[in-house]
């Protein structure tokens, strides 16, 4: 990949209204980010809006700031882009990393849990992470208080990956600033956010998808029923990864999430041997390194006005699956996907989880 193409890909994903799904569609349709950038204004106009592209100078400043922090970029399509993450729907087209980029190629296990975890759970998580490391696994977590912190501390000597919800120049929580620096030096620190980006609430579910995507399986140690840890477990399950949970006392609210996962089919684990047995060997079908087609749906170059109107008529404020729009419109997937792309670039469409879309 040329330096110009790398720059254009970063500029494309930094442009408003262009998320991971749209990024893949544009690359699949136009072959290069440069061609996609040139085509976006016309596509947005067809959708009834005006394109907004990231300014080249802004992207240049971001790259300079990242380099000043000792970070580098891993772009989707790079040979060292994490191959398991690459298979995840909505995987970030650009990662900013510091540390050992070879770690994701080893067997990875995500460990997540409560921020207000009990002392017993923190001790257990630290020991479990240490034991997993001694068995050759890399532990992935989110550098949050509680279970995440314990997981990184236990695996710092054997291999740990921390995914954060801010830029590298910001430590959150503040008390983990030293641990964040240690992970960057001895493990791998990962974010999808440029320097200066604060850890806003909406960034944490997005961070959780990276945690789940990097690992062959996710272990939940202690979690409430509606916690972010269960979001990570759900993403892992939807991606076909192993979901494991450590059982807890039924009278402790912090254990209810884990017990619920087990009741719904998650694997009960009590030690590192249980985790490694549950993971087994990674299915070769999950590994497709060097993917160039970005798994994008087919796109059409020309759409008749009546076809565009038919698709828009089926959309509304309630999110519906794209497959349903294709079925009801009786149009080809290429035509429907093209109209949706135009609407999104025009700022009129929002993409939801599970391949659903709605009018914005």
TrEMBL record:
One of its GO terms (biological process) is DNA-mediated transformation. Pfam families: DNA_processg_A (PF02481), DprA_N (PF21102), WHD_DprA (PF17782). Residues 73-279 form the Smf/DprA SLOG domain. Coiled coil: none annotated. Residues 297-355 form the DprA winged helix domain. It comes from the Bacteria. InterPro entries: DprA, DprA_WH, DrpA_SLOG, WH-like_DNA-bd_sf. Belongs to the DprA/Smf family. PANTHER family: PROTEIN SMF. This is DNA processing protein. It comes from Sphingobium fontiphilum.
